[in-house]
Design goal:
GO terms for molecular function: DNA-binding transcription factor activity; sequence-specific DNA binding. Pfam families: WRKY (PF03106). This protein is of the alpha+beta class. The chain is built from four helices and ten strands. The protein has a domain of about 80 residues: Single Sheet (N-terminal domain of TfIIb), CATH 2.20.25. The strands form three sheets. A five-stranded antiparallel β-sheet has the order 6-10-9-8-7, with no helix packed on it. It has a three-stranded antiparallel β-sheet with strand order 1-2-3, with no helix packed on it. It binds a DNA duplex (16 and 16 nucleotides) through strand 7.
Length: about 250
DNA sequence: CGCATTTGACCTGCGC
DNA sequence: GCGCAGGTCAAATGCG
């Protein structure tokens, strides 16, 4: 049994409680963050106090979709900006959280811009955009049709600004924040009895489209270990897009 | 009044 | 080419 499993293509299913105390899980996170942000987050220590006991990670490398001529003509007819001729799909990933609340608080403000019924699911999917006009991050929220208690949240893009709900540097912990406890999801499952061996380093990780990407740093390593435990600098990595900085200061 | 949400219409990609 | 499903737009509406 491994802590993660390749589902295929660019999708991996991670089935382990990612609570920041699990070294292997932490390494996986670091690796994902590094893939998304050129390993900037590779040396950061963090915890995920309440998120994703079970996580489905679905990252997409930046994908450039060239519009064909007919479409381009349509766009110009509608007066759209020429810059939009090339559509970039932002890195994207999703996670599943057991919660009664659909829209989980993540420290950012979102504006709902659409809702759609999903095929083979009685629950609609909601579409949100970050309220920051310069920020192009989107997120989708839907409830699992298989397990209605599970909320599937998909983020696309990276925030170009700081969290608004939890200013950086503030000392607020998830377990003593009344506001947070209201929306704090419960665990889907208990941690498995089997603690997996150290994660294998994959030199050619399918997630890593960035030239800056490096393999996972092994636990208990040499000089890098100190670097790993150092608090994140200005850049919090992709996690900063999800978990408020204050909630990551517990580690 | 300003901002967020709702919701039907429209657009786009993809499989057949 | 057509139909379907997902994604987005934008006017209407609601709310503080």
């Amino acid at each position: 049994m491994d802590i993660w499993k390749w589902v295929g293509g660019e999708t991996a299913l991670v089935y382990q409680e990612l609570d920041g105390t699990n070294g292997a899980a932490r390494k996986i996170w670091r690796h994902f963050l590094g893939c998304f942000r050129g390993m900037k987050a590779a040396g950061t220590a963090f915890s995920i106090p309440y998120l994703v006991p079970i996580m489905l990670v679905v990252p997409y490398g930046s994908l450039t979709l060239q519009m064909n001529n007919s479409k381009r003509a349509k766009e110009q007819k509608k007066g759209r900006n020429k810059d939009q001729e090339t559509k970039i799909r932002q890195p994207r990933f999703a996670f599943m959280t057991k919660s009664k609340i659909d829209h989980l608080e993540d420290g950012y403000r979102w504006r709902k811009y659409g809702q759609k019924a999903v095929k083979n699911s009685p629950y609609p999917r909601s579409y949100y955009r970050c309220t920051n006009t310069k920020c192009l991050v989107k997120k989708r929220v839907e409830r699992s049709s298989e397990d209605p208690s599970v909320v599937i949240t998909t983020y696309e893009g990276q925030h170009c600004h700081h969290s608004v709900v939890f200013p950086r540097g503030s000392v607020v912990h998830a377990h003593d924040s009344a506001a947070l406890s209201v929306q704090q999801p419960t665990a889907i499952s208990s941690p498995p009895p089997y603690f997996p061996p150290p994660l294998q380093v994959r030199e050619s990780h399918p997630f890593c489209t960035s030239p800056h990407s490096k393999p996972i740093i092994e636990e208990g390593g040499g000089p890098d270990q100190q670097e790993q435990l150092r608090p994140p600098p200005a850049d919090d990595g992709l996690l900063g897009d999800i978990v408020p900085a204050a909630m990551r200061n517990r580690s």
